[in-house]
TrEMBL record:
Organism for this UniProt entry: Mustela putorius furo (European domestic ferret)
Domain Synaptonemal complex protein 2 armadillo-repeat-like: 9-187
Gene: SYCP2
Disordered as annotated region, ranges: 445-480
Cell location: Chromosome; Nucleus
One Gene Ontology term from the biological process aspect of the record: male meiotic nuclear division
The protein, known as: Synaptonemal complex protein 2 isoform X6
All residue ranges annotated as the Synaptonemal complex protein 2 Spt16M-like domain in the record: 278-389
Alphabetically ordered keywords of this record: Chromosome, Nucleus
GO annotations of cellular component type: condensed chromosome, centromeric region; lateral element
Amino acid sequence: MPIRPDLQQLEKCIDDALRKNDFKPLKTLLQIDICEEVKIKCSKQFFHKLDDLVCRELNKKDIQAVSTIWVSFGRCGKNITILGRAGLTTMIKQGLVQKMVAWFEKSKEIILSRGNSKDEAVINMIEDLFDLLMVIHDTNDEGKRQVLESFVPRICVLVIDSRVNICIQQETLKKMNAMLDKMPQDARKILSNQEMLILMSSMGERILDAGDYDLQVGIVEALCRMTTEKQRQDLACQWFSMDFIANAFKGIKDSEFETDCRVFLNLVNGMLGDKRRVFTFPCLSAFLDKYELQIPSDEKLEEFWIDFNLGSQTLSFYIAGDNDDHQWEAVTVPEDKVQIYSIEVRESKKLLTIILKNIVKISKREGKELLLYFDASLEITNVTQKIFGANKYKEFTRKQGISIAKTSVHILFDASGSQILVPESQTSPIEEELIALKEKPNSQKEFAKPSKYIKNSNQGDKKNSQLERTTPSKRKMSEASMIVPGADRYTVRSPVLLINTFVCFVQIVRQRHLEEEELNHHCK
């Protein structure tokens, strides 16, 4: 049986916090279950007391106190009565939404003062503010109109501001899209003024450097909700300067939003080449411990896409939910939740193993180890290190100071005959302008020079964008493979790899010397 609070308890708690700076009664109120039929009587002055308390704590930048106030007010809001009338309706008439605009602007000052860093307390405070805003929005039609008119432009400004943390932008976008989803038809006129058209154009530009796939999706969703499909045909060319990008955006249908949006964003991010901040790779299979995670059941979804987000420092993807209609379930792996990770080639596949700090629940399964399998030809090491950091990269087990991890390495030769050792996963069929080593039955080596590949920079960019979506063709040159300790672990500049390269070079020279001696012996 829920506890019934005193009819005047909420206002008394606000009084204690305002006059005595005592927040304990307000925090205690958060622990009380409030039934829908409970009426909490407040005076006509309650609205002004609430505003005074919120403004004071915002000026003090006491984030925890502000969150406590907003959560308490949000939980009790529907139960409040003022002079026998519905409290929220009365306060909306008193100017509650305008006061919340002021609260938002003060909160934005705090956000910008913290920089782009991820501050959980600030993120929680913004979530609490927008949870409260949704309560006001859902109160009545006047609440909807005022909230949409006052907050949609401000949320757009927040989203296009690169100084704001991505997590905050994602949260505010979710709330805005929820508002737009319920927007009355007669309220759409607020989206057609010149200010909103300029903001929509800036939102389109923000997609390019957002640095997070989910944020990009949220922006695309907002643009689609703010316009009809017919309006998009005209506005897309204003938002995106390249025709093929504008046409891809025009192709997004409301009924196929998820898959059409994926096609559009893969095209946008791929077009950016090395300047992109979202790298997308097709995954062969994914596991949480021993449980396989399933791709969303959508016939239009071509691949099991994994997004590497440089801006938010997260890895994210979508799986099929366990519910009956198999709704898409988002999975996000932030850098601060990762304990250690490794990348290795196993059974001709590249395996990214992520060990999490704590057990997580994904699609009703619990686990701590995430395993993602990719085609061995895909280069995921650099972008993974940019997201999770090189310090969390799993070191191979060492014995007497030498790595015992083994990987297949291709020995290729350049025009001067110098040996170059390249891990199998690093070789590219496009950029191999090398001389291959062919083995003949008599063990003599023959050098064959393939035709020169002249690389155009524009073609290179185009190929880079396509490389993530297609399996590279088989190599057209013969190669000699051998096992070298630790070759996949280090970059070309690594001293250990240079040592390994030198050791292999000595071994090759020694083998050649023995073969020459044997040949001379036979000749004699």
